[in-house]
Write a structure and sequence with these properties.
The complex is a heterodimer of chains A (845) and B (125). With 845 residues, chain A is α+β, with helices and mostly antiparallel strands. Chain A contains 25 helices and 31 strands. In chain A, α2 packs antiparallel against α20, α3 packs antiparallel against α4 and α8 packs antiparallel against α10. The radius of gyration of chain A is 32 Å and the shape is globular. With 125 residues, chain B is of the alpha/beta class. In chain B, strands 2-1-3-4-5 form a 5-stranded parallel sheet, with helices on both faces. The termini of chain B are close together. The model of chain B has no long low-confidence stretch (mean pLDDT 88). Chains A and B meet through β1, α3 and α19 of A and α1, β6 and α5 of B. β1 of chain A pairs antiparallel with β6 of chain B, so a sheet runs across the interface.
Chain lengths: 845, 125
């Protein structure tokens, strides 16, 4: 065949177009499945909002459908690229295994860090560090409340220890038999406490310890996986206070061993939790030099409807409160600011527990003068109430908080876990009617609930293009559109409301991840609500009330729809952590590789990006030669463009080697070209005098520009009726535009990618910022890094896509003139605004 | 509608009953849930409900059995059948026997609420 091609160049040309067409067919199938995955993701995300009822069968089906569609995406890319990315298949199987494991509630860890610093903790790391420590990380990182420094020895370190000691089988055997399990558990305990800590774990701990100095002392706390989450395990695992660095390994082993203590094992058996799946992470935190400590309940478990935060306190370390060993103070503090103390029982405190410099703790006599005084002042109690309510608002359930106060009066949060309230103790919705009647309704039934729940706070309105400065945690975030740039505020808001947006959108997804009550697509929120107003958002009934409706909030806290506690809900949440997050943003980064794909979303993003590039690779075609499906386009502007028609992209009749705009039947390409040829866009007098010749020859992509280049580079567009893949090399700009117009709105997308430039990196970066700003204005989701800009737009109607393509065409022409002019950052702003308003005259700006 | 609407939910997946109970109680209805369809049928001999929501595919008596039993005991009681996609055809047969409507899992709570309201109205006509 091959030699025939040389003999018959026309046939060779034909054959190359056929190959390209076949590639495009694979690409179409890839796109369909890519969209199927995105649909499933959006759909599953909506299920997390609490509006839906689903069962286990749904989860099983979801897993199968996701796997099937992703597999098709990966297979298509393999066919397009001649199996160019074999590792992507491994990533797929890895991800599938993780999704299946969450479906079956099996823990999966694999290789992960052995130690994580407190400052780096996130909820996503729960399966490594345990609920208890993950939550402390949230409180410190997101709520900005003081949590003692330190680090967590992870579940991976636990796995290592179990493997090193060869304990896995003996541990698994504990699940099977009852008779001699006590004896065999004791054997496991002594193997842990008497054996060494694996070298790598030891090294990792030492590295963390190096930051603290030899006389530091730590509280070493158990943070078993599952502890304080679905199950409380309260008091069953070992915590050691005031541990010196030299004794830390011992304390660590004690905490790990407590996993196999008799009462902990019994608890597991009662709750049907297999011991084989047990794992212990251990938190090591610097001791707070506490003058007083205690426990706080944000709601009184006995009378949950009463307005009372219950605080118990003692002098020194909190051991006495936690263990209930000795008389302690008890206070009731109002939940309403300024948090007055409404109840007070001050005990006669004869003993207090203090930390000694040698690394032990000791019970001391309380000096006579202090015995009858309250352990903490009213100011401290009010401050404690504020901190605890902040945690409660964030965690969306009543909290049980362990705290300490140091000599400077600083409050430290040592632990926070959900406080279980017996539902029989709470009243139903009967009394709500009266309370609600006093509050005017500001909005009712506008838009859709994206995440169920009830929240209240001061409104903070973000208009389009405005910055979110001045936003305070606990505010009700009100935005015109669900801009991705507002995402980071969502987790701190007590509720979110938008004018436009979809329940399946990115913004709503984030709200659901943090369980922030959310109403989207109201059409009116930014007009009806004003910054500074106090409102209550009932995202269960879809009503916004004026003022803070305390009773409704309390109802939400105690009795509201507890959909998130359903086991199916928890499983879906876990599954989606391996499906939804997108970790691969930047295609130019070294991390944009199959090995880094850890979710289905990563995999399809990677595959799509590579498929677009694959398609742009035109092999075996002589672009200068022309042929039945290869034409040159005359645009009337100094830019050459070779068109390769793979089906319905060019008018069939009467086309010579050179075609003009009228003969282009590819809908997306037509739109781009309409934009590109808009008067004023293609500046015919682009730059300074000395650069003029340079620039215009650059756009001709002449071989003179590339001394020594073997092949002349061309601007190429692969087109069909509904598709365009445009590869432009304008000077040193490298621009890809890929667009598919789908049958249904959700199937259409535009990918706009821009990199390079002719000037220094600062100016190129400025230009990238300008392009990003403009693309974002038009609703693209944009990633910018250095001089690379990748913008994506998915989902809108064909009309909107058409308008955006025209805009993209204008932008391509416009950007060509740019970087030489971008003297400073202020110019970027002015130019972006000018472009949006239709002014392309750079010199006039 | 003077008295509170009384609803029975029968589904062998506990989550269905639990969540519907939470939701409908908040709407001021009285809800009883069953994961065992035999126990549900026994309860139906003692008590009359406005609306019975039942899954179609269950071990023991199926949703169709529950439906037939309900209709024999209290003709006015309205029955809503929950189905999976796979069993939607079987559910069409239920319509003949007198089911008021059917709904496929997963469904939106508010859609179920509307059906229950409609059913209660019919039951008390």
């Amino acid at each position: 065949m091959t030699w025939l091609h040389y003999l018959f160049p026309r046939r060779r040309q034909q054959y190359a177009v056929e190959a390209l067409r076949a590639k495009h067919d694979r690409f179409r199938d890839l796109l369909d499945n890519n969209n199927r995955v995105l649909e499933l993701i959006a759909d599953a995300g909506e299920k997390l909002g609490g509006e839906y009822l689903f069962d286990r069968q749904y989860l099983i089906d979801l897993d199968l459908e996701l796997a099937e569609a992703c597999r098709a995406v990966v297979r298509n890319l393999a066919e397009m690229s001649g199996d160019g990315y074999p590792r992507l298949r491994q990533a797929l199987e890895r991800t599938r295994a993780a999704v299946r494991a969450s479906l079956e509630s099996r823990p999966v860890r694999g290789a992960g860090p052995l130690v994580v610093e407190i400052g780096d903790l996130r909820t996503e790391l729960t399966s490594l560090v345990g609920e208890k420590m993950a939550r402390l990380g949230e409180i410190r990182g997101r709520l900005d409340l003081p949590v003692p420094d330190g680090f967590v020895i992870t579940a991976c370190a636990f796995d290592r220890l179990v493997r090193d000691r060869g304990l896995a089988e003996r541990i698994a055997a504990l699940d099977g038999r009852l008779e001699d399990s006590a004896q065999s558990a004791a054997g496991i305990i002594s193997a842990i406490t008497e054996g060494g800590v694996p070298t790598e774990v030891r090294k990792a701990i030492k590295r963390s310890l190096a930051g603290y100095g030899r006389d530091a002392s730590f509280a070493v706390r158990s943070s078993a996986l599952g502890e304080d989450g679905e199950q409380s395990f309260a008091g069953l695992h070992t915590t050691t206070l005031n541990v010196r660095p030299d004794d830390l390994f011992d304390a660590y082993r004690q905490s790990v061993a407590s996993l196999f203590g008799a009462s902990a094992l019994e608890y597991r058996r009662e709750h049907a939790l297999p011991v084989a799946e047990a794992a212990m992470a251990v938190g090591c935190q610097v001791m707070v030099p506490a003058v007083a400590s205690g426990v706080l309940y944000t709601v009184d478990p006995v009378t949950p409807e009463a307005d009372g935060i219950v605080v118990t306190a003692c002098l020194g370390l909190g051991v006495l409160v936690v263990e209930g060993r000795s008389a302690v103070d008890r206070f009731v503090v109002s939940r309403t600011p300024p948090h007055a103390v409404t109840g007070r029982q001050v005990a006669q405190k004869s003993e207090m527990v203090v930390a000694l410099p040698d690394g032990s703790v000791e019970s001391n006599q309380v000096p006579e003068a202090q015995r009858d005084k309250p352990a903490v002042s009213d100011e401290i109690l009010a401050a404690l109430a504020r901190s605890a309510l902040k945690i409660e608002r964030h965690m969306r359930s009543p909290q049980d908080v362990e705290w300490a106060v140091d000599a400077e009066g600083r409050i430290w949060i040592l632990q926070a876990r959900p406080l279980r309230i017996d539902p029989r103790r709470t009243r139903g919705a009967e009394d709500l009617g009266e309370a609600i009647r006093h509050h005017p309704v500001l909005m009712r039934g506008a838009g859709v609930v994206a995440c169920r729940g009830i929240g209240a706070g001061e409104v903070f309105v973000v208009g389009s293009g405005e910055m979110a400065e001045g936003f305070e945690p606990g505010n009700v975030l009100v935005a015109g559109f669900a801009s991705p740039s507002l995402s980071r505020l969502v987790s701190m808001a007590s509720a979110v409301i938008t004018d436009v947006g979809a329940a399946a959108g990115h913004f709503a997804t984030i709200a659901r991840e943090y369980r922030v009550p959310a109403i989207v697509d109201t059409g009116e929120a930014t007009r009806t609500l004003r910054t500074g107003m106090a409102v209550t958002v009932d995202a269960e009934e879809n009503i916004v009330y004026e003022g803070v409706v305390e009773q409704l909030l309390r109802y939400g806290l105690l009795r509201g729809d507890r959909y998130e506690e359903a086991p199916e809900f928890r499983v879906l949440r876990r599954m989606l952590r391996h499906v939804v997050p997108l970790n691969l943003y930047d295609p130019s980064s070294a991390a944009f590789v199959p090995e880094r794909c850890s979710t289905y979303h990563d995999i399809i993003r990677f595959a799509h990006e590579k498929a677009v590039m694959e398609l742009g690779e035109v092999r075996g075609l002589d672009l200068g030669r022309g042929g039945e499906h290869v034409r040159r386009l005359d645009l009337g502007i100094p830019m050459d463009l070779v068109l390769i028609d793979i089906g319905g992209g060019l008018a069939a009749e009467g086309t010579g080697p050179i075609v003009d705009l009228d003969q282009v039947t590819s809908r997306p390409l037509r739109a781009v070209l309409d934009g590109l040829t808009t008067p004023g866009v293609w500046d015919t007098n682009p730059a300074g005098m000395d650069l003029e010749g340079f620039m215009s020859s650059a756009t001709r992509s002449s071989s003179l520009m590339l001394p020594g280049a073997v092949a002349v580079e061309h601007n190429v567009a692969i087109v069909s009726r509904d598709y365009v893949n445009l590869n432009l090399r304008l000077g040193y700009h490298f621009n890809v535009l890929d667009c598919h117009l789908g049958e249904r709105p959700g199937d259409s997308y535009i990918l706009f990618r821009f990199v390079g430039g002719v000037t220094d990196l600062t100016r190129r970066t400025r230009r990238a910022a300008l392009l990003s700003g403009i693309l974002e204005h038009y609703g693209f989701v944009v990633n910018q890094k250095g001089d690379l800009v990748v913008g994506r737009l998915t989902g809108p109607s064909a009309d909107v896509i058409g308008q955006r393509l025209q805009m993209a065409g204008r932008l391509i022409g416009y950007s060509r003139q740019l970087d030489i002019r971008l003297r400073d950052d202020a110019v970027v702003h002015r130019l972006a605004e000018g472009f949006v308003q239709g002014c392309y005259d750079i010199d006039g700006m | 509608m003077g008295q509170k609407i009384e609803v029975m939910v029968v589904d062998d997946e506990p989550t269905v009953g639990e969540r519907l109970k939470d939701y409908l109680q908040k709407k001021d209805m009285v809800v009883e849930t069953f994961t065992d369809s035999q126990a549900a049928i026994e309860r139906l001999t003692e008590k009359r409900f406005d609306v019975v929501i039942t899954d179609l595919k269950m071990s023991g008596p199926t949703g169709l059995d529950v439906l037939v039993f309900v209709k024999n005991e209290h003709l006015a009681t309205q029955v809503i059948i929950i189905t999976g996609y796979a069993t939607i055809e079987a559910a069409r047969g239920a319509e003949v026997v007198g089911a008021m409507d059917f709904i496929t899992k997963p469904f939106e709570m508010k859609d179920m609420y509307k059906l229950v309201l409609k059913g209660a109205k019919k039951a008390r006509r």
